[in-house]
Structures
1.
Amino acid sequence: MRIVVNDIAATPGAGGVYSILSDLYNQVKKSDKDNEWIFILAGKYFQETDNIKIIERPDLKKNKLKKFIFELFNGYKFINSYRPDIYISLQNIATLKVKASKQIVYLHQPIPFQRQKNFSFLKISEIKLAFYQHIVGRIIKHSISKVQPYTIVQTKWMREAVSQKTKLSKNKLIVEHPFVNVGSSKEIHVKKKCNSFFYPASGYLYKNHALIYKAIDILNCNGINNFNVSFTLDNLKKHNQKNIRFLGHIKRDKVFSMYEDSVLIFPSYIESFGLPLVEAALKADIILAADTEFSHELLGNYDNVYFYSYDDPKKLAELMLKVIKGGIVSDGIPLAIKDNGQSLLTTIKNIIGKGWGSVYE
């Protein structure tokens, strides 16, 4: 069987989207020697094997308009030339007119489906996000409605939102959150008083670092200075540096050590999953999280999370002060996950298995 995977969007250093691609490649390389896999990528990021081929299309990565034309109008000719039995898009969009027995889309772009924020083309800081919400979002919804692919999402809220905003049949929407790897250590670090806070996130507007800056200013104005907040951003040199540490990009083991010594602040209001919430909760950490659909879905039964509105810096400042004074302490009980996800390859196998019988037995 021949399986063609399209992921022009993912490049090294692109964060989660590249991790999804890399994990799938490694899973295939390790455990599937029977089927032929063809990866259409922007570059030759992985080694080819006897049953894995890499097709490079850097031109589609460089030109967004050309990429959308490829997905909606003429890309099917290129893809069909490889005669796929199964076609998989890891980049949210279902390519039109592909001749494959099954199409699968991995949909991990939440911006067009969330209800918290309507981004505007009239605000410079929001133009890129407005493009994803209103232009790319329309393309995603149209392609999924037209093709009716099996669509993998990471959360129940995404399943409901995609169901409401497309014509995709619900029985083709599969919820499978990513496997959360917190390492081999089972040690729980219960904090008493803590004056260190941590927010591992990129600098996108909806990650909402601005709320933390405002909360810091509120604390400072009230004479509270004995704390620090660490960001995984480069030094912006725009804000009061006294209480802020800019760590830049840090490795995963450093992230986990930061959880042990700090309280997680998570003000983001748009996430497909929200991985740091689960990572920290599995260690019984205190979490100060924005009150959103995804945070409640992931932490609904967790007692060490404290919510605030994503646009209320005063409430966040109050919670931070309680942590600093020891008024908020973890009960030492970590989040319990009955089903800690599964590999993307396993999910793909399950989908294919519905029509391909004993191919993977």
2.
Amino acid sequence: MTHPDPVPHPDHWLTNGIRQIGKTEYVLFAVAVLCMSLTIITTWPLWQNRTSPPNLPILPALTGVPFGALILLSLAVALWQPRKGFIGHLIVLGVAIAFDQIRCQPQIFSLPVLMAACLWREFRPVARWFLIAMWLWAGVHKLLSPDWMGPISWTLLDMLGMENSLEWYRPFAWSVGIGEIVLGVIAIFKPRWAAFVCGGMHFGIVIMLVNMNWNFSVLYWNVANAIIGFWLLWSWRTESVSDENVARRWPRELWQQVVVVILLISPVGVYNGMVPHFLAHVLYSDNMPKPMMTTAAGPEEINVWESLYVPIPRLPAILRQYFESVADIGDKLHIYDPRPGMLHLHYGMAQFEAGESVLHRAEPISQAAFWDATTGVGQGFAQDYPPAVFYLEKAGIKMLKRTQNGKIYAIQFSPDKYNARLFQHVSGLLNLEQIQLADCELRDEDLEHVTYLPVLYGIGLDNTPVTNAALIHLDKVDKLRHLERNGTEITDAAVREWLDR
């Protein structure tokens, strides 16, 4: 037997607290408010006016205002006047994000959804489908992400102190991704079953984060997902349609249906850059643009974790704005985008005269100019693609750096560790200058993977079974000047033609 939701007090816009929305709803709303408050406190530097890391406002004039205390005050007002206070909180939160786009974090957008579900009955179907979309897409993104299926899942197990993490990281990666998708599907057809899985999964994430002492910025979001998510799924009742009593999961109102369709479809847009990842449930999969700055001191990552306790949103526009805020004239920025079909971006910090003013601006530059050692601060540096480094490192392939924090500039494959599948990962090491493959069972077509390396100038092919056909691929390596080929079938005539080309 089902019971209708409690009807709010007729003067709900004038009454306070529990009398406005009902006891159960108010307690759950208070949980969400507490979780948002703790999230703000945990990431307190993020909500202040800063010089380092700089605030990244939507408009240059939006500077100089700290928002931490204002947001906490808006949450306190929401406990007294839930509906009015919540709308005020949304306004303050929106203005705070306009003053600094680094505040665009998934937990900051998701917690208000849970709050609204406690305040308005008609919003609950949207909140339920929001959670379903989150679980479905979080799982899909993980299964499509080389980062999650490799270095991230291994790192999580390693941080948890698990022995034999190299044996277990792949089963762990698959089980988490599939598990999230299964939870989303169960929530559609058996929401009360899913309620227990939801609670267990999100409290499990909380325990994992505490054990790792890591990423507390999402800790309280997971607490809210576990508690309020359980309630939303458990209370997803059978409704009467016409004269029959059937399970109705799809929203009845047109506006609800439109919103839910957008929630379910829009995350696919993250793969062509149309939808930002923080609105597309890209959680831990990290299959997003990877920035690297080149300064006079060498390569420098864009990393705000240590100071703000959150990652910088990986949108090219935000990364470029950050670069403009901290870079000197001549510095360079490379944005490595691993998503299929997306282009890598190159920028240089330039100076312009505009009347009596001197402007500093990050300008797009060509790939050739980025890697040119005679422009700006010198040859640019790119981010080594984490999955490539992970697989090569775990296979025991020798890789060299000039400094501890430098980029990999040379790699050597031994005959007993070489295979074509492993060799393909060299295409993710864009800073490679030298490759040694002597005595390896290398095929001509394997060298296709070196065509993506913009600063490769030397390759050792001694005693490998390559032929003149290998030079077709080496033709595309602009800076290649040194070729070792003793013991191969590459002829002198073919080499002369290759040099002429």
3.
Amino acid sequence: MTSCLYTATLRHRRSRPTVHDFQYRVFMFYLDLDELAEVQQTVRLFSANRFNLVSFHDRDYMDRRPGSTKQKVLRCLSQHGIEVGGGRIYLLTSCRILGYVFNPISLYYCHGPSGSLDAVVAEVSNTFGGQYLYVLSQPLSQGADGTGTRRYRTRKALHVSPFISMDAIYDFHLAPVGESLSVGIVEHESGDHVLDAQLWGRRMPLTTATLGRMLVTYPLMTLKTTAAIHIQALRLYLKGTPFHRQPDPSA
């Protein structure tokens, strides 16, 4: 079974117009979307599309409807002219804990039949109920730092933070996923660096024992994620950071 867990550190650093920095310890799932039934059979605390201490639900992803998440991803890729055939798709995400989850971002690593990474889909959600799918398939650079990290650039299309305008660009820095995990997102607003988010961690086996240990070490983590978003937003507001109202949804 290739599905696993990652224990990780999440760090946000804001440079303008207000300096702000915080970090949290988290754990995340890295799921082979072809292995969900096997994970459910072997990890007693985990279920797919039904309640458990930890659960994965297809309706939490992509179009927010029931149905195979992998098939949804394949349709999304096809709409962008990308065909991965029988390749594997891995999802880096948080799953529901006691029925609750909010994922600010989930990443789908989409591999072709030969095993090559053909695309990454970044599913970004905000606390206002909005969602956008960034399909990343044309890296600006690959492996220049010696780690095999791919860099993608895309224009911001979803209002996420009320303290950053829509005039922004994202640079994604995605290292190959293996024994270690490294994800970086750098945001520039009107050409100036404004924020970078870093996630780095190490691989853990996805077993009943390991998952149980994660639930004890990081209790109610998914609820804490939502609480942390609002706490950090309040801190920024109290620092006098300029506020941007939510625009109308994009097409």
